[in-house]
Amino acid sequence: MTLIFENVGKRFGALTAIDGVSMRFEPGLIYSIIGPNGAGKSTLINMAAGSYSLSSGRIALDGRTISGLPKHAIARAGLARTYQNIRLFDEMTTLENLEVALFAEEFRHIIGELFWPRRSRTLKAARRARCLDVLRRFDLDAFADVPARSLAYGHQKQLEIARALVARPRALLLDEPAAGLNHAETEILRARLEALKRADLVMIVVEHDMNLVMSLSDRIHVMHQGCLLFAGTPSEVQGNRAVQEAYLGTPGEHDVIQAAAEARTRRVRIRAHADIARHRSRPASR
Amino acid sequence: MAALAGRVRATAILIVAAAAIVWGASLLPNYELRVLDSVLLYVLLAMGLNIVVGYCGLLDLGFIAFYAVGAYSYALLASPHTELHWPFGAVLVVAALLGLGAGVLLGIPVLRLRGDYLAIVTLGFGEIIRVVINNADALTNGPKGISRIYRATLFGWTIATPLDFFYLLLGVCAICFMIVWRLERSILGKAWAAVREDQDAARGVGVDTTFVKLCAFGLSAMIGSVAGVIFAAFQRFVSPESFVFQESLLVVLVVVVGGLGNLLGVIVGATVLIVLPELLREYAQYRMLIYGLMLVGIVLVRPRGLVPKRFDPAWLMVRLGWR
Question: Which listed site, A182, B147, B285, B302, has its alpha carbon 20 to 30 Å from B240?
Answer without folding.
Answer: B285
